[in-house]
Design goal:
By secondary structure, the chain is mainly α. It is built from 12 helices and 5 strands. Helix content is 64%, strand content 6%. Helix 1 packs parallel to helix 5. The chain is elongated. Pfam families: Fic, SoFic-like_C.
Length: 266
């Protein structure tokens, strides 16, 4: 759901480089698979998971939530309202969104998707490839502590530093991951080209489009019959380049080395 919601958001912002409240609602709907929209009923409170103590009560009235989200929408998209560096502004936007807490569910993941989409909007990323969620989840205690610190003391410095650190650390990890994937693609390309007459660039692309493929995927991507696609994939299984796994009635052909790289990163 996270990946499909991120892709949806990327498509929504790609044309005009703006992020509207309708876009944010669509992203959350893709995440949670519901159409509840912004909260209309009171009762939402953020609690300490260990003690059950309420640590923060976000706005309760629907009209207030709408007003605050409208203000946030303007802040995100109207460059004349501030002259902050994009990374600083991303941190401010994230704080505001999480404090408004506009949805019943999925606020955290929606907010983290907004982070990445904002970096795309500001041309700091061409594609939404930074997985900032990993850093935030790994440093979750500090994340919530600093959010609350801004609410209680208006001390923004530590919060902004935390979010910039998240971008820096995740960027470094992503650069390493991309390099490792490129090396693996090169390795597979040489093995396929030197050992299989059916090698093609389209075949290689298919094996790295996702961590797994299926007969029907390959059939479509390289324009062969189902029987031929199955033959090719099973030959790659025999040589250890793929692993075949049956789930229900479907066979999945897993690129385990690619899966390992992605799993280590996430």
């Amino acid at each position: 759901n996270y990946i499909s919601a991120l892709k949806k958001g990327f498509v929504l912002i790609s044309q005009n480089k703006i992020l509207t409240n309708n876009d944010i609602i669509a992203i959350q709907a893709e995440l949670e698979k519901n159409n509840a929209g912004f909260r209309k009923l009171p009762g939402t409170a953020l609690k300490n998971a260990a003690t059950g103590e309420t640590v923060y009560t976000p706005p309760q009235e629907y009209s207030v939530i709408i007003d605050l989200m409208s203000n946030l929408e303007q802040f995100i998209n109207n460059e004349t309202l501030s002259n902050f560096d994009p990374l600083v502004k991303m941190a401010i936007v994230h704080y505001q969104f999480e404090s408004i807490h506009p949805f019943y569910d999925g606020n955290g993941r929606t907010g983290r998707i907004i982070n990445v989409l904002y970096l795309v909007m500001k041309d700091l990323l061409n594609l939404p490839i930074l997985y900032l969620s990993r850093y935030i989840i790994q440093n979750k205690g500090l994340y919530y502590k600093l959010l609350q610190e801004v609410r209680e003391t208006e001390n923004w410095e530590n919060w902004i530093s935390y979010m910039i650190d998240a971008v820096e650390e995740t960027s470094k990890e992503t650069i390493v991951l991309i390099g490792n994937i490129r090396e693996l693609i090169f390795e597979y390309k040489n093995l396929l080209r030197n050992n299989y007459k059916f090698y093609s660039q389209d075949l290689l692309n298919n094996l790295f489009k996702h961590p797994y493929t299926k007969i029907e995927f390959l059939e479509k991507d390289i324009g062969v019959s189902r029987i031929t696609a199955a033959k090719y994939l099973n030959e790659l299984v025999k040589s250890g380049l793929l692993k075949k796994q049956k789930l229900g009635t479907a066979n999945y052909y897993i690129n385990e080395k690619l899966m390992d790289l992605l799993t280590m990163n996430n």
